[in-house]
Amino acid sequence: MRKLVNFRSFVYSAVLLILSIIACLVALNIAWLGVILLSCIILIPSIIVLIRRGCIEKYKIITVFLTSILCVISSIAFFVKVYTWIPSEIIQTYTYHIEGVIEDCYDSKDAKILTLKNLKIENSKVKGKMLLSVYNAHDSFDDSCIGYKVSFTDAIQLNTLVADFFINSMVLRSDIRYLASINNKKIEVTAQLPDLLSSVNVFIKHKFIDNMGDVSGGIAYGILTGNKNEISEENSEAFSIAGVAHILAVSGLHIGFLMALLMFILKRLRLKRLPSYIISAIVLLLYAFLAGFSPSVTRAVIMCLIGGGAVLFGERKDAFNALGTATTVILTLSPFMLFDVGFVMSVGSVFSIINFQPIFFRGLKKINIPDKLSNSIAISISAQLGILPPSMYFFGTLQTYSVIVNIVLMPLIAMAFIATFIALLISLIPFLSFVLSFAGSVIQILNTAASFCATLPFAQIAVHESSIVMLLYAYYFVIGDFFNAKNKKTIALIGGMLALLVILLLMFL
Questions:
Q1: What percent of the chain is modeled with pLDDT above 70?
Q2: pLDDT attached to residue 151
Q3: Are strands 149-155 and 188-190 parallel, antiparallel or unpaired?
Q4: What whole-number distance in Å separates Cα of residue 91 and Cα of residue 186?
Q5: Are 349 and 379 a contacting pair, CB within 8 Å?
Q6: Are 41 and 95 in contact (CB under 8 A)?
Q7: pTM (two decimals)
Q8: What's the pLDDT at 293?
Q9: Higher pLDDT, residue 178 or 378
Q10: CB 108 within 8 A of CB 96
Q11: Mean of all residue pLDDT scores within the chain
């Protein structure tokens, strides 16, 4: 008898963790309801397993009890994060003496913007970072000041993480918990050496900008590191409207490009499985370090290492379970990643690709489209379906032509990333920095194409931001290849009509 859904241990764990984190959010606003929901999520599966333990496989029993423990750990981490986000003794608009180290520096319209880390407030270390606007700074601050220590006395504003049922995902991602603004004359600067990551990032930024120009160099730096501070607001918006903004935020897409490049090189070297796996793991971890171990990159690296490990030890790769494993690890240690736009988009796109790519591929094959093109189109369509819910929820927008634009531009996007990565490595050799200009030409073509697509009529449609749209993921699973039901087509049709109705309502409300 064919099962409705095949049990996967880490998919089960990931789903229960997601539900428990949502219950924690409910508990912050409606305590009794949240506690009941959380108790049911943690206890009911374990009770059922205890009652029916004689007819349940041992690995399922272990999975259920282990998941309950992980849900407890994640819930504790959730509430600890909420109640320690801002120390209770720090009060908004009060004046404090502040010390910090410059992590980043860029220009705004009328001030220099400094990101400060290693913060001390009244000589006490605090978690998080500060965004400091320095007025009348002129040329007082630039990249050469990164790593310098600054100190000043001024009033601070507090960045709220949770407000009712709203999670500030931008604050969460940047970890900027404090805001301040000050005149340049009131700040003291002490020179000191930057840390390794800051030094590497500054080096790469100057390599790109010096050899590609401000525009292409800034975009190349964003593509490789995910830092968009060097990209103009106009160019950043063009990429967003065109539906290719994901290239500017380091994610699983970048890891995929990097893995494709690695596999190509390692096959040519004819290395055995174990050395290939070790080299790939080292390169991936180094790149994750360069990208600051962002949630989407961490998820992608974990999935690649799990998939590679399965091949290495002769096991069958299970993409759903690999995704579940990565999600479980991240949400257990950092439950608030569930509300991070990059993490949700990354997991959503991979989930959708796993779920829909085979379906679209079979359909395209039936009309005699070549395999490689069918696969590329199927992946692009699936990925766009995956990022549709978070795009509507977090940004309140729909990119009308994103599927077509991504299908057309994906080869150029892949070429831009790979050319930038390879050119950067070659430029480390003395007198070969000029190769970056060739990669800059590819970046320029990509920028021109994105800008053109952004000018098309109705390229972006505003919609009402509502969390209900996230239920599309449940619908995706039901109509995908991994869900088996007798009346699947009817369910898909009715669900599709309801989903379309919800989207139309959100567009016109």
A1: 91
A2: 92
A3: antiparallel
A4: 21
A5: no
A6: no
A7: 0.84
A8: 75
A9: 178
A10: no
A11: 84
Longest dimension (CA), the chain: 77
What is the rounded distance in angstroms from the CA atom of residue 265 to the CA atom of residue 466? 45
Under 8 Å between Cβ of 106 and 142: no
Strand partners, 131: 115, 179
User: Is the Cβ–Cβ distance between 24 and 34 less than 8 Å?
Assistant: yes
Backbone angles phi, psi at 179, to 5 degrees: -130, 145
CA angle at residue 501 from 500 to 503, to 5 degrees?
65
Q: How far are the Cα atoms of 21, 23, 81, 164, 486 from residue 27, in angstroms, in the given order?
A: 10, 6, 14, 10, 38
Q: Which residues contact 40 (CB under 8 A, 6 or more apart)?
A: none
- ∠ at Cα 348 (342, 351), nearest 5°? 140
Q: Name every residue whose Cβ is closer than 8 Å to that of residue 222 and which is 6 or more positions away in sequence.
A: 228, 230, 231, 248
Q: How far are the Cα atoms of 43, 62, 146, 150, 181 from residue 67, in angstroms, in the given order?
A: 10, 8, 43, 45, 45
SS3 208: helix
- Residue 79 DSSP one-character state: H
Nearest to 130 by CA among 144, 118, 138: 118
Query: 142 is written with which tokens?
Result: 């630039």
Q: What does the alpha-carbon distance between residue 436 and residue 211 come to, in Å, rounded to a whole number?
A: 6
Q: Which amino acid is at 486?
A: K
Residue 157 has pLDDT above 70, yes or no: yes
What integer pLDDT is reported at residue 459 of this predicted model?
85
Around Cβ 387, how many Cβ atoms within 10 Å? 23
HSE, CB side, 13 Å, CA atoms: give it for residue 327. 31
Neighbours of 354 (CB within 10 A): 19
State the first-to-last Cα distance of the chain, in angstroms, to the nearest integer: 46
- Locate the DSSP E strands across 222-310: none
241, 437 in Cβ contact below 8 A?
no
pLDDT single digits (tens) 183-220? 887 888 888 888 888 888 888 888 999 999 989 999 99
Token digits for 50? 């205890």
Q: Which letter, b or e, does each residue of 327-346 get, where b requires 16 or more Cβ atoms within 10 Å of its Cβ? A: bbbbbbebbbbbbbbbbbbb
